[in-house]
Design brief:
It is built from 3 helices and 19 strands. A hairpin with a 2-residue loop joins strand 14 (149-154) and strand 15. It has a 5-stranded mixed beta sheet with strand order 2-9-8-4-5, with no helix packed on it. The chain has a 5-stranded mixed beta sheet with strand order 11-19-18-14-15, with no helix packed on it. The chain is elongated and about 130 Å long. The chain folds into 3 domains: 23-119, Sandwich (Immunoglobulin-like); 122-216, Immunoglobulins (Immunoglobulin-like), CATH 2.60.40; 223-261. Helices cover 25% and strands 38% of the residues. The chain is an alpha+beta fold. Bound molecules: 2-acetamido-2-deoxy-beta-D-glucopyranose (NAG) (6 copies). InterPro entries: Ig-like_dom, Ig-like_dom_sf, Ig-like_fold, Ig_sub, Ig_sub2. Keywords: Immunoglobulin domain, Membrane, Signal, Transmembrane, Transmembrane helix. One of its GO terms (biological process) is axon guidance.
């Protein structure tokens, strides 16, 4: 009984010691993080992505960079797009793309540290939107970045993340991003205003863009048509009156007797 207890205590102690040794031992590799707790680095699409690992014990020239457990030289999407600055323990992509996100690691003498690269979100909506009362309003929000999640704000609603009442949020089939299309069937004049699409992910800054929606009255399209009709009518009237007058004066002229015409001609000569 006592021996069993002693063994249990000893094994517990050894586990505790092992954990203690691991956590308190000097760190030989120290990556630079934007979010230390989540081991994340955030980057802007089409801007440089820089990862760095400080070597505390060992030699910088032995540092190995991997993406998702594959040495970076062997990753197809990275061919010819990255640089390694050995002396500073840096890995760089000068013009990073969305697909450059993911798990990277720096390794040295069997010690490995993870760095998760997150592409900050970018969202775009068409800035101006005209729609006729009673028709269907569709606002697409294009989003790029690492797993962007979208929400909408408009009118009295803020941070709408699912279909509510007349407002339907759908997934754009091509981009596969949830909530990327806002639809209102049967638009009313009260629906005019600003519609803001917000994208967020693990990066701290949200991205947003706003569409201004103008709703035209159902008969608004009729007015220009009526205007054109009125214009044509007036034009016809003017032509008609003019023609009448001309006919009249021609008639008057032919009424005058030939003698007078001769007189006129003589006067000219
Ligand atoms: C680091 O490695 C290089 C080449 O392998 C060697 O020349 C250099 O002396 C090493 N430095 C240290 C501090 O071990
Ligand atoms: C990373 O590797 C895992 C396991 O090998 C794989 O399931 C995953 O799809 C990979 N991720 C990327 C972005 O290549
Ligand atoms: C790095 O991440 C991978 C996948 O999540 C995990 O299996 C591995 O244990 C991590 N390594 C470290 C040192 O945290
Ligand atoms: C929005 O709020 C204002 C004031 O609280 C209210 O008068 C208006 O009816 C609301 N509009 C909608 C569409 O709910
Ligand atoms: C919007 O809602 C989502 C999910 O409900 C939440 O994660 C996010 O923090 C909210 N954003 C704002 C600005 O309130
Ligand atoms: C559209 O809305 C108007 C006013 O709210 C309503 O009279 C009409 O029946 C609606 N039409 C459809 C197709 O829902």
């Amino acid at each position: 009984m006592e021996a069993k207890f002693l063994a249990a205590a000893l094994s517990f102690l050894s586990i505790f010691l092992a954990i203690y040794a691991q956590s308190s031992g000097p760190e030989s590799l120290v990556p630079k993080y934007d979010n230390v707790e989540k081991q994340m680095v955030f980057y802007t699409i089409r801007s440089p992505l820089t990862l760095s690992c400080e070597v505390k014990i060992g030699n910088y020239s032995d540092l190995i960079w991997k993406k998702n457990d594959t040495v970076v030289n062997e990753v197809k999407t990275l061919i010819g797009r990255f640089r390694i600055i050995k002396a500073e323990g840096k890995f760089m992509i000068d013009k990073a793309d969305v697909f450059d996100d993911g798990r990277y690691s720096c390794e040295l003498n069997g010690v490995s540290k993870n760095i998760t690269a997150i592409a900050k979100p970018i969202v775009r909506v068409p800035s101006n939107h005209g729609v006729v009362e009673g028709e269907k309003l569709t606002i697409p929000c294009t989003a790029v970045g690492s797993q962007p999640r979208l929400s909408w704000s408009f009118g009295n609603y803020t941070n709408v993340t699912e279909s509510t009442g007349r407002y339907v949020l759908k997934k754009d089939e091509s981009s596969n991003v949830e909530n990327s299309v806002l639809i209102i069937e049967n638009v009313t004049l009260d629906d005019r205003g600003d519609y803001k699409c917000t994208g967020h992910n693990a990066a701290p800054e949200d991205a947003h863009d706003t569409a201004t929606v103008r709703v035209k009255g159902k008969f608004a399209a009729l007015w220009p048509f009526l205007g054109i009709c009125a214009e044509v009518l007036i034009l016809c009237l003017i032509i008609l009156i003019y023609e009448k007058r001309r006919n009249k004066s021609e008639l008057e002229e032919s009424d005058t007797d030939p003698q007078e015409q001769k007189k006129k001609r003589r006067n000219y000569d």
